[in-house]
Amino acid sequence: MKITVLNGSPKGKNSITLQTVNYLSLLYPEHEFDIFHVGQMIGVYEKDPAMVFDSLKSADLILFSYPVYTFIAPSQLHRFIHLMKNSDLDLTGKYATQFTTSKHFYDITAHNYIQENCQDMGIKFIKGLSADMDDLTVKSGQKDAEEFLKYVSWCVKNDVYDTTPVSFDARSDHDYKSSIADVPAHRSHSDKRDVVIVTDCTEENVSLTSMIQRFQAVLPVCSRIVNIREFPFRGGCIGCFNCAATGKCIYKDEFDEFLRSNIQTGDAIVYACSIEDHSMGWLFKQYDDRQFCNGHRTVTMGKPFGYLIDGDYSREFNLRTIVEGRAEVGGNFLAGVASNEKDVNAQIDALAARLTYALKHHYVQPSNFYGVGGMKIFRDLIYLMQGLMRADHKFYKEHGQYDFPQKKKGTLVGMYVVGAMMNSPKIKKKIGGKMTEGMLMPYQKVLNDVKKKQ
């Protein structure tokens, strides 16, 4: 079987993810592995992708190999996928799968992103493998990789693949039609707080421009636009960890300072973009990846977020998960997402109203599973890697984010006592149905305290 490997890591041959591919190529010499470092050499392949495209056309299997960066794949792989989809390359009926390494922070949204773009191109997609960064160094991880390739080979041989789309088929007709927002006269801004609108909008994008203009007009708070298309990015994050100790990026384009002084100083942040390849587009992905100069520190926590999205947002389940997950992990109140699918004016007005309320009342909701689960992964990761990620470690200590359960010794002892009681037939019989009453005692105390104050 000929396997064309699209290595999306910006580290090229030094990618940790790629080492598992190398391992499989040594273990199964009967398969031909044709590896292209599309992440590292994206600038070259943007100018001339012919060699990669020829390999893709003749491949029996396309393997996307990449580390998970900020909910999805690295921005460099984003750019290559955009290149694939906007060329005359026809991969209809080809088989594809993916292999990633990460600490399992939103690896599922990264996998969904690759799958839904492959399905757009008519590619038969086989469920991929998400591995821990260290899996190849242990026997169990090696076995997982071996069994994965055997399974994928069986799928290709027997024409077995995922038939359920992650999201709607972008090639099919549907009822979405982009709307232009009405732009009223700007109201006076009595509230001088600062709302930053981060966008990649072009002059040609009339729809998104109108959404931004209406939002600014109806928002009773001062706002300003930061267009990331105007920033001279030197490139996407290369995962070098140069910023781990000091927070200083290795690039000399000063994006880290620009981010901290022009965007993160805002009282609220609103992102305005058009849906592209089931994401906010490769440029916004580059912006997100480069924010790793902040490491895993939730430096904007407490600030409300909002989104103005040009596109069929309601049918983009994976993107909606990413938008909500980003806010939840960051400790930001998601004031809303206004899209131009329908009732665009009402959606924008509602977003402006909720954002204003959140600013005035400092409103932040407690995290749901997306936020709690994501931060537990980061908590454990930073604690183990504190020697390298010193800035993260200091931030986590200062903000009480090392909330390990073993620190709650009183609760642990109490559970042992309750457990012993419940394992005693005599005590259990004596307690009878009073267990529930006992569990309610702390809550009853709260209610009683309220009654006393009234």
Tally of individual helices: 16
Let me know the number of strands.
11
What is the structural class?
alpha/beta
Radius of gyration: 25 Å
N-to-C SSE string, H for helix and E for strand: EHEHHEHEHEEHEHEHEHEHEHHHHHH
Largest sheet: 6 strands, parallel
Instruction: Detail the poorly predicted runs.
Output: none
Mean pLDDT: 93
Considering DSSP H and I runs of 4 or more, what fraction of the residues is helical?
A: 40-55%
Portion of residues in beta strands equals 5-15%
What does this protein structure show overall?
- This protein is an alpha/beta fold and 454 residues long.
- It has 16 helices and 11 strands.
- The strands form 2 sheets. Strands 1, 2, 3, 4, 5 and 6 form a 6-stranded parallel β-sheet that branches.
- Helix 4 runs antiparallel to helix 9, helix 7 packs across helix 11 and helix 10 packs across helix 12.
- The N and C termini lie far apart (76 Å).
- The model has no long low-confidence stretch (mean pLDDT 93).
